[in-house]
Amino acid sequence: MREVRLVYFAWVRERIGLSDEIVSLPEAVVTAGDLITWLKGRGEDYAAALEHENVIRVAVDQDHVEHDEPLGSAREIALFPPMTGG
Amino acid sequence: MAPAPSPLTARASITVRVQPGDFDTAAEIDALSAGRTDIGAVVTFSGLCREEKGQLAALELEHYPGMAEAEIRRICETAVARFDLQGATAIHRFGRIAPGDRIVLVIAASTHRQAAFDGASFIMDYLKTAAPFWKKEHLKDGTARGWVSAKDTDDTARDRWS
């Protein structure tokens, strides 16, 4: 188990109902995709927020990563929808 | 994601700000070119809040503090290296923004015009698809229409650079 801070933005934040939280990740959670799958099992709100896995973007310590990339020794992991700035 | 930047041009200046307040476009152009005689071209892009046929009361812009600045800086560094820019400025606002108000400013400076046009365009294309900002629309009737969806055309615009 390792502790990380999860942060959520836009409709991911609204659907989960939290802007951030500290969680202990099981060893089986290796990649960003593993994290999404694990989070979906934490409750209905998470399942609803992360229903369309493919559109969910992940940043590890404020750097974009693909779903198949390892989380490594991340301290902060962010999950959010496709970006719409500019 | 923007390709990794290569070492910067020696005198390139990069300014990145993420702020709630408005900015002065002319002052930012002056700041980028002040005291320099090697710049021959400056291109600016301003993004404004549209009224959406009179329905929109305001946009609410959410961002990821820290990463927003870092990602825009990475994009600007890549643009400076790729187009040999003399400088780049990118300012993005967050919070509540009314129709007609400025949202984003990008300035690219170079020796000749084409690099400045390309640099500004490149920075905007990556900013829209990789900088962590999200827009929510609030309508005049008091309802929230919800989060703006990302456009495939923005991905296409970005992909022409790769």
Describe the SSE topology.
The complex is a heterodimer of chains A (about 90) and B (about 160).
Chain A: E1 2-8, H1 10-16, E2 20-25, H2 32-40, H3 44-49, E3 57-60, E4 63-65, E5 76-80
Parallel strand pairs in A: 1-5
Antiparallel strand pairs in A: 1-2, 3-4, 3-5
Chain B: E1 13-19, H1 25-33, E2 41-48, E3 56-63, H2 67-83, E4 87-93, E5 95-97, E6 102-110, H3 113-130, E7 133-139, E8 144-147, H4 152-159
Parallel strand pairs in B: 1-4
Antiparallel strand pairs in B: 2-6, 3-5, 3-7, 4-6, 7-8
Q: Could you give a short description of this structure?
A:
The complex is a heterodimer of chains A (86) and B (162). By secondary structure, chain A is of the alpha+beta class.
Shape of chain B: globular
CATH architecture classification of chain A: Roll
Largest sheet of chain B: 4 strands, mixed
Which spans of chain B of ≥5 residues are poorly predicted at pLDDT below 50? none
Our Rg estimate of chain A from Cα atoms comes to 12 Å
* The CATH architecture of chain B: Alpha-Beta Complex
Given the C-alpha coordinates, what overall shape of chain A results?
globular
Q: Largest interface, and how many residues on either side?
A: A-B, 16 and 30 residues
Could you explain the architecture of this structure?
The complex is a heterodimer of chains A (86) and B (162). Chain A has a single domain (2-80), classed as Ubiquitin-like (UB roll). Helices cover 26% and strands 29% of the residues of chain A. Chain A has a five-stranded mixed beta sheet with strand order 2-1-5-3-4. Chain A has helices at residues 10-16, 32-40, 44-49, and strands at 2-8, 20-25, 57-60, 63-65, 76-80. With 86 residues, chain A is of the alpha+beta class. Chain B has four helices and eight strands. Chain B has helices at 25-33, 67-83, 113-130, 152-159, and strands at residues 13-19, 41-48, 56-63, 87-93, 95-97, 102-110, 133-139, 144-147. Chain B has a four-stranded mixed beta sheet, sandwiched between helices. In chain B, strands 5-3-7-8 form a four-stranded antiparallel beta sheet, with no helix packed on it. The longest helix of chain B has 18 residues, at 113-130. The chains are: A alpha+beta (86), B alpha+beta (162). Chains A and B meet through loops of A and strand 3, helix 2, helix 3 and strand 7 of B.
